[in-house]
Structure formats: C-alpha cells, structure tokens
C-alpha cells in the first residue's frame, strides 16, 4: 500500500518537492495513461487540502472530454476556449483563477467550486488535455501552488506513455 505523509506546516516549495518525489515513486513502473491519470487525480485529492475536484479532460476534436477524476459528477465535454478548462486548452497556458464566479464564461459543473487551476498537458507540441483542480475556497491557489502543481504535471507527463493518446 502506498502511504502519503506530509507535514502541513512545511513551506510550500518543500511541500511540493516532497509531493513530487512521492508522485514519481507512485507512478514509477507504470506507463499507462488511464492508470496514471487515475492515480495522479487521487494523489492530488489525497495530499492537497481544500479541494473538491481533481482530474483530467482529454483533447478530442477541438473539445475536452472527461477523463479520470476524483470529485462530484462533472461536465462531460467542454469546447476549446470555453470556461477555465477551455481557456487553458485554447491558450496552452496554465489558468489560475482566484474566483471562478468572476471569470467570464465560467462553466459551473459544481456550484461549490470557487477557485481553480487548470494546467495543459502538452506532449511534443500537441495538446493531450488538461489537468483541472477545483477548490471551494476563493483564492485557494497561490503562485507557489501553481508552480508546484505544474511540476507535478511534468512528472506525470514524464512517467506516462502519451504517444497513442492523440
């Protein structure tokens, strides 16, 4: 069984470095996209406080299609450019939104969500999808959280076979 141990008083940069080491260990030896996406989603939900959703949307024909996640029932398809996930897919840039209710075009899959980070999954220049993290707390995610989460996504990409997914 994989145990996750993190001290909540640890500085954020050390916290995310520790998480990244644990994630690399968790995903080590497994290369399957669906398996690693499911494990990664559960890992994030289990290790980060104040979250209500963490998971993947995969790029298919200019829209995002729901993939492995942990949380309440979610939107099934999101067009590129629509909502926070669609904005991340369209721009291929991380979107960190302090208050999703102030984000023009926000899609409220879960009305409890108040802030969000969406990180594009890009492999060899192609958008594979996005990793979406929601919180019921406004301003939950700092710049340090964004950088730490982007490092976790990089570890996911490096640990996963993505060639066949697009």
TrEMBL record:
Alphabetical UniProt keywords: Oxidoreductase
One Pfam family linked to the record: GAF_2
Domain called GAF: residue spans: 41-155
EC number(s) per entry: 1.8.4.14
Highest taxon listed in the record's lineage: Bacteria
Gene3D superfamilies, sorted: 3.30.450.40
Enzyme class: oxidoreductase
Keyword Oxidoreductase assigned: yes
InterPro entries in UniProt: FRMsr_CS (IPR000614), GAF (IPR003018), GAF-like_dom_sf (IPR029016), Phosphatase_reg/MetRdx (IPR051330)
Assigned GO CC terms: cytosol
GO molecular function: L-methionine-(R)-S-oxide reductase activity
Family to which the UniProt record says this protein belongs: Belongs to the free Met sulfoxide reductase family.
Protein name: Free methionine-R-sulfoxide reductase
Gene: msrC
